[in-house]
Amino acid sequence: MLRKKASIGVIFVLVASVIYAFISVPTSEKSDGYWAVENFDFYPQSSGLRVQHEYYQLSYREEYEQAEWVAYHLTADQLTSNRRKRPYFKLDPKVKTKSAHYKNFKNSGYNKGHLCPAADRKFSEKAYNETFYTSNVSPQKNKFNAGIWNRLEQKVRYWVQRDKSLFVVTGGVLTNGLPTIGSEEVAVPKYFYKVLLRETKKEPSAIAFLIPHEASDQPLYKYVVSIDSIETLTGIDFFPALTDEIENKLEASSSYKAWSF
């Protein structure tokens, strides 16, 4: 009887160990290839100053006086038509080197183009106001900002309403020799990008856009590129928390068949 009880005890310990080992593996790295978004760290890796706000994160590059990327998780329940009082732009208190002053844009001919759109953060006053830090803007031509860039932001919200959730990473392509505005020499990107990661029950899907900083009436799918190509241009490592197999597959593709336009 003692031997039988001991055997049962050993089996129980072994089974418990297997279950614990499985649930202890991060959801993006389970051996059967399963992928889920619980506690998934979708933020990129790069060389800038990492700044964490409550409703988005960014990586600030002092030499360009703006963020190289801004990232946030957008869900369908966050999309509202709430009307918010538009605040003044203000310096980001979490950027140790100080973010560029909004006065750099005065008489420059460029808009203060949001990277994390204010319209994506209307669900609370605090979330909305956070988007008005100057670390969250980049100089954008009005016809670009109000044109194709706005169309892309609206398309992102359409996909979120349909699919319930997206991870969004966006910014300007920051390289040496860019034109600048203002006394602090805020760089004016020649291209802007947006990278999206969509949740599924098994594997995620992704799509990336690289758009020249100019007015355009072209359809959005004309600007779909691989994530790999944006990584090459920017030096940013997108979605490093994914398994190598999934990451390599997603980032090499420039297909938009899984996305409706």
List keywords for this structure.
261 residues; alpha+beta; Extracellular Endonuclease, Chain A; 7-stranded antiparallel beta sheet; two-stranded antiparallel sheet; 6 helices; 11 strands; globular; disordered N terminus
In this structure, how is the largest beta sheet organized? 7 strands, antiparallel
Helical content (DSSP H or I, runs of 4+): 25-40%
Terminal-residue CA separation? 68 Å
Report the portion of residues in β strands. Answer: 15-25%
CATH hierarchy class name of the largest domain:
Alpha Beta
- Number of DSSP helical runs: 6
The CATH architecture name of the largest domain reads 3-Layer(aba) Sandwich
What is the number of domains?
2
CATH superfamily assignment of the largest domain?
Extracellular Endonuclease, subunit A
How many strand segments? 11
